[in-house]
């Protein structure tokens, strides 16, 4: 497997900006570094700039300012007016539509880029056979795209993208056309293949679960800006902004005022006067206004052992989700979302664990 691609290199983006119609900022001074061999997902709502970023990396769009390089290989440098055409960037790309040639066999589709590069036919045959075995399609090499399932077509598109030994692999929502079950399976094998190849990969998606499951790091974007760039666990458990906390996972927000700060346990007051204990490493100031966030799965139904951080409420609605129940609980501080394994109704006492309360800047 080691001879399928070049030694991997990292991707560096510095001060990337792009405007449309001289007013709308698609990218606003974006900078980040991806280490060699990492899979990084660009995640955010429609219009956040993730696809524009991918297109700038691919050479499909010209940024107004900034530099892009893979290792020491410069793709774009606006200050030096350097802009390599897509075909000169040595990148592999998989689109949502797969873009397979319908009149070519699987083997011919995968080998197309090698033929364009005028690689010897004997080497093309060997490399195509090797990559098709890697993606589990060696037995369908002579079939045509219309004879394959959606998942198999997606694998052909991936094989075609990596067989040319690209410096970088770009994936633009490649699983979006698959149904839920196949998509979950594809997520697993795609990540496995990426790890085995060791190729640096940029993955664009709006699917939170996909990004959390597959990525070494996630770049969360909003309105052309980078909100947070970190590991999936840090993104989920320690969101840097309210936008990140709101976009990823089901989160309830509570406005609060700091009453007392201590290195390990601080006290805050909610709008109705309820006092809560919060465990945070952030330095808080007395009387500071903050937002608290808590994930619905971290909210608990209180037991007799819980004496602090308990709020009385009443369940207003319940949804059965198969493995759990999702309840909306009305309290004096507003509605809270609570998850339980068993059906619960009526009046309840809600416990908000101090370590589960995320401290965010006030909106």
From TrEMBL:
GO terms for cellular component: ATP-binding cassette (ABC) transporter complex, substrate-binding subunit-containing. Residues 11-248 form the ABC transporter domain. Pfam families: ABC_tran. PROSITE patterns: ABC_TRANSPORTER_1 (PS00211), ABC_TRANSPORTER_2 (PS50893). Its EC number is 7.6.2.9. One of its GO terms (molecular function) is ABC-type quaternary ammonium compound transporting activity. Keywords: ATP-binding, Cell membrane, Membrane, Nucleotide-binding, Translocase, Transport. SUPFAM superfamilies: MOP-like (SSF50331), P-loop containing nucleoside triphosphate hydrolases (SSF52540). InterPro entries: AAA+_ATPase (IPR003593), ABC_transporter-like_ATP-bd (IPR003439), ABC_transporter-like_CS (IPR017871), ABC_transpr_MalK/UgpC-like (IPR047641), Mo/tungstate-bd_C_term_dom (IPR008995), P-loop_NTPase (IPR027417). This is ABC-type quaternary amine transporter. It comes from Herpetosiphon aurantiacus (strain ATCC 23779 / DSM 785 / 114-95).
């Amino acid at each position: 497997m080691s001879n399928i691609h070049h030694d991997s290199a990292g991707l560096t983006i510095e001060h990337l900006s792009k405007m449309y119609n001289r007013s709308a900022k698609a990218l606003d001074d974006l900078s980040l570094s991806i280490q060699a061999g990492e899979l990084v997902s660009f995640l955010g709502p429609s219009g956040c700039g993730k696809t524009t970023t991918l297109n700038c990396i691919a050479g499909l769009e010209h940024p107004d300012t900034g530099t892009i390089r893979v290792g020491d290989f410069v793709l774009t440098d606006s200050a030096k007016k350097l802009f390599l055409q897509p075909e000169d960037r040595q990148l592999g790309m998989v689109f949502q539509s797969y873009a397979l040639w319908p009149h070519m066999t699987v083997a011919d589709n995968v080998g197309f880029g090698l033929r364009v590069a005028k690689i010897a036919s004997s080497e093309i045959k060997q490399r195509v056979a090797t990559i098709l075995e890697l993606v589990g399609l060696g037995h369908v090499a002579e079939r045509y795209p219309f004879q394959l399932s959606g998942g198999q077509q997606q694998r052909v598109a991936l094989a075609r993208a990596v067989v040319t030994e690209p410096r970088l692999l770009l994936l633009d929502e490649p699983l979006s056309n698959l149904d839920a079950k196949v998509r979950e399976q594809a997520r697993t094998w795609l990540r496995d293949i990426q790890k085995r190849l060791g190729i640096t990969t940029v993955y664009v998606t709006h699917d939170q679960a996909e990004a959390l499951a597959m990525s070494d790091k996630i770049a969360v974007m909003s309105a052309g800006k980078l909100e947070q760039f970190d590991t999936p666990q840090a993104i989920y458990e320690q969101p840097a902004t309210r936008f990140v906390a709101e976009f990823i996972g089901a989160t309830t927000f509570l406005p609060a005022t700091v009453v007392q700060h201590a290195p390990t346990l601080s006290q805050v007051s909610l709008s109705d006067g309820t006092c809560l204990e919060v465990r945070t490493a952030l330095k808080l100031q007395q009387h500071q206004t903050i937002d608290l966030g808590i994930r619905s799965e971290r909210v608990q139904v209180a037991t007799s052992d819980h004496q602090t951080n308990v709020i009385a409420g009443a369940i207003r609605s319940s949804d059965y989700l198969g493995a759990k129940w999702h309840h909306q609980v009305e309290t004096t501080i507003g509605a809270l979302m609570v998850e339980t394994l068993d059906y619960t109704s009526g009046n309840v006492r809600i416990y908000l664990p101090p370590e589960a309360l995320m401290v965010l800047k006030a909106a």
